[in-house]
C-alpha cells in the first residue's frame, strides 16, 4: 500500500515538532507538508530541520490550501480559530484531518461537526492511550457511585498553556457526566473564589494548576464521607500524544466523511456510548 502523505499544521510548535518526528519514523507515513502562519518563526524553513531530525526537503508553507493539496491527511495542533478554518478547508479539499487543538468553544465544535459532512475528522482533546482508557474508567465509576460521591477534576500543565480547564479535564468531566446521566454544562463548577458557600451535591468541580514544564497530569477524585477514590494519569512526554495522532491519521486515510474520536481509533468505544 502507498504511504499516507501527512501534513502538520503548527509544525514549529511544541506538538508540531514532535508530530513531524513521529510521522518521519512511522512506517507507512510520510511527512509531505508543514504549515505555520505568515511571519511565524518556522515559516519557509524545512520541516525536518525545525523538528531537529535533519533536512527532509519539505518546506513549511503559510497557505493552508497548499498544505491540503499536498497531503492525504493533515494533523492540526494549533489554536481554535485556525483549527476551525482548517476543518472547512479539509472539507473543501476532501482530505482527512486529525484535530488535537483544545480550548474550542461550542460554536467551534459545531463548525467542525459541520465540516465533518465533507471530511473524515478525528477530534480528541487527548490522543494518548492511557487518558482514553481513563475516560472509560471514569464513566464506569461515575455510573456506579451515587451523587454522595463528589466528583472533582484536578489538572496541572506547563506554564505556557493558554486554555483552562484543559481539554482533557473537560473530556473527563463529560465522561463523568455521561456516567451520572447529567449534562456537564449544568453540573460543572469550573472555578471557585471567595465565599462560595458549601459544595452543591451532584456538581462536578474543576481545579487548574499551571507551572514549570509539566507535560500533563489529570486526577479525577470521587470523594464521599469516609473514603476517597482517585484515578490519575501523568504524561511523562509529549511523544504519547504524537504517537496517538499519527495512529489516528493512518486510521483516517480512506475513511468516509464523519466525526470520529480516539475511542473509535483505539477500538475502545462501548456499544451505545458517546
Ligand atoms: N489532543 C492532544 O493530545 C493534545 C493537544 N494539545 C493542544 O494542541 C494545541 C497546541 O499545543 P502546543 O503545541 O503546546 O502549542 P504551541 O503554541 O507550541 O504550538 C502551536 C503552533 O501552531 C501555530 N499556529 C497558530 N495559529 C496558526 C495558523 N493560523 N496557521 C498555522 N499555524 C498556526 C503556532 O504559531 P505561533 O507561535 O506563531 O502562534 C504554533 O507554532 C493546544 O491547543 C494544546 O492544548 C497539546 C498536546 C496534546
Ligand atoms: O497544552 C497541552 O500541553 C496539553 N493539552 C491538552 C489538553 O488541554 O488537555 C492535552 C494534554 O493534556 C497536553
Automatic annotation (TrEMBL):
Lineage top rank: taxon: Bacteria
Binding-site list for (S)-2,3,4,5-tetrahydrodipicolinate: 158, 167-168
Binding locations of NADP(+): 37
Biological process terms in GO annotation: diaminopimelate biosynthetic process; lysine biosynthetic process via diaminopimelate
Catalytic activity: (S)-2,3,4,5-tetrahydrodipicolinate + NAD(+) + H2O = (2S,4S)-4-hydroxy-2,3,4,5-tetrahydrodipicolinate + NADH + H(+); (S)-2,3,4,5-tetrahydrodipicolinate + NADP(+) + H2O = (2S,4S)-4-hydroxy-2,3,4,5-tetrahydrodipicolinate + NADPH + H(+)
GO cellular component: cytoplasm
EC number: 1.17.1.8
Pfam families assigned: DapB_C (PF05173), DapB_N (PF01113)
Keywords: Amino-acid biosynthesis, Cytoplasm, Diaminopimelate biosynthesis, Lysine biosynthesis, NAD, NADP, Oxidoreductase
CDD domains the UniProt entry points to: DHDPR_N
Domain Dihydrodipicolinate reductase C-terminal: 130-266
Residues the record lists as binding NAD(+): 10-15, 36, 100-102, 124-127
Subcellular location(s) of the protein: Cytoplasm
Entry's family note: Belongs to the DapB family.
HAMAP family, sorted: DapB
Role summary: Catalyzes the conversion of 4-hydroxy-tetrahydrodipicolinate (HTPA) to tetrahydrodipicolinate.
PANTHER family: 4-HYDROXY-TETRAHYDRODIPICOLINATE REDUCTASE 1, CHLOROPLASTIC-RELATED (PTHR20836:SF0), DIHYDRODIPICOLINATE REDUCTASE (PTHR20836)
Protein name (record): 4-hydroxy-tetrahydrodipicolinate reductase
Organism: Stella humosa
Highest classification ranks of the organism: Bacteria, Pseudomonadati, Pseudomonadota, Alphaproteobacteria, Rhodospirillales
Amino acid at each position: 500500500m502507498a504511504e499516507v502523505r501527512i501534513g502538520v499544521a503548527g509544525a514549529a510548535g511544541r506538538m508540531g515538532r514532535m508530530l513531524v518526528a513521529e510521522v518521519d519514523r512511522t512506517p507507512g507515513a510520510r511527512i509531505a507538508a508543514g504549515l505555520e502562519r505568515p511571519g511565524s518563526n518556522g515559516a519557509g524553513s524545512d520541516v525536518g530541520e525545525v523538528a531537529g531530525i535533519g533536512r527532509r526537503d519539505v518546506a513549511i508553507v503559510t497557505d493552508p490550501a497548499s498544505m491540503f493539496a499536498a497531503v492525504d491527511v493533515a494533523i492540526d495542533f494549533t489554536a481554535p480559530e485556525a483549527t476551525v478554518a482548517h476543518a472547512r478547508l479539509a472539507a473543501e479539499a476532501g482530505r482527512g484531518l486529525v484535530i488535537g487543538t483544545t480550548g474550542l468553544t461550542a460554536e467551534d465544535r459545531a463548525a467542525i461537526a459541520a465540516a465533518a459532512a465533507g471530511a473524515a475528522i478525528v477530534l480528541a482533546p487527548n490522543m494518548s492511550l492511557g487518558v482514553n482508557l481513563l475516560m472509560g474508567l471514569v464513566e464506569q465509576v461515575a455510573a456506579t457511585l451515587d451523587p454522595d460521591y463528589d466528583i472533582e477534576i484536578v489538572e496541572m500543565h506547563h506554564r505556557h498553556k493558554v486554555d483552562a480547564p484543559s481539554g482533557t479535564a473537560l473530556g473527563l468531566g463529560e465522561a463523568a457526566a455521561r456516567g451520572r446521566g447529567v449534562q456537564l454544562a449544568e453540573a460543572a463548577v469550573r472555578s471557585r473564589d471567595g465565599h462560595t458557600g458549601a459544595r452543591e451535591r451532584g456538581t462536578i468541580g474543576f481545579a487548574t494548576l499551571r507551572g514549570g514544564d509539566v507535560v500533563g497530569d489529570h486526577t479525577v477524585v470521587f470523594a464521599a464521607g469516609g473514603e476517597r477514590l482517585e484515578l490519575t494519569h501523568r504524561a511523562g512526554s509529549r511523544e504519547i500524544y504524537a504517537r496517538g495522532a499519527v495512529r489516528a491519521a493512518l486510521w483516517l486515510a480512506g475513511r468516509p466523511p464523519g466525526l470520529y474520536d480516539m475511542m473509535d481509533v483505539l477500538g475502545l468505544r462501548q456499544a451505545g456510548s458517546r
